[in-house]
Structure prediction request, 138 residues.
Amino acid sequence: MEQKIDNGKIENRIETELLNHVKLSINPRFQDWVLFKNGTYIIFEYADRFPDIKSEAIRLIKKFGPVYPGGKSEDFDVTDLNKTKGWIVSGHGYGIYTYVSPQEIKSKIPNIVDIGLLGRSKRDLDGRNPVIIHVNQK
Prediction:
């Protein structure tokens, strides 16, 4: 007998794990942020300036998410996390970060370039097809 896999439950579990890691990666003083499906999140320092941070997050990820050859969008920095396993990858958009889990890295000894390239590709996916999975507000 063939067993059915509930993809909805699996996707919900993955999103919950991602959300937990992202929460631990953000400085608690920042309460306003939006998380996208592939792990990119945008922190709003002054969220009260925007009537709708969801719309503003979509606008920002469409502007700063996609990667174009030869431009600033290719640049990245990688930061090790202290409160959870993994890294955040930042790029040229202020307050935009992408979480990378150790399980996503294929090599046994992760290096900064592999982590950064993966984070950049995840940001590119979120920029080209933005799907918000969580909004955190004060």
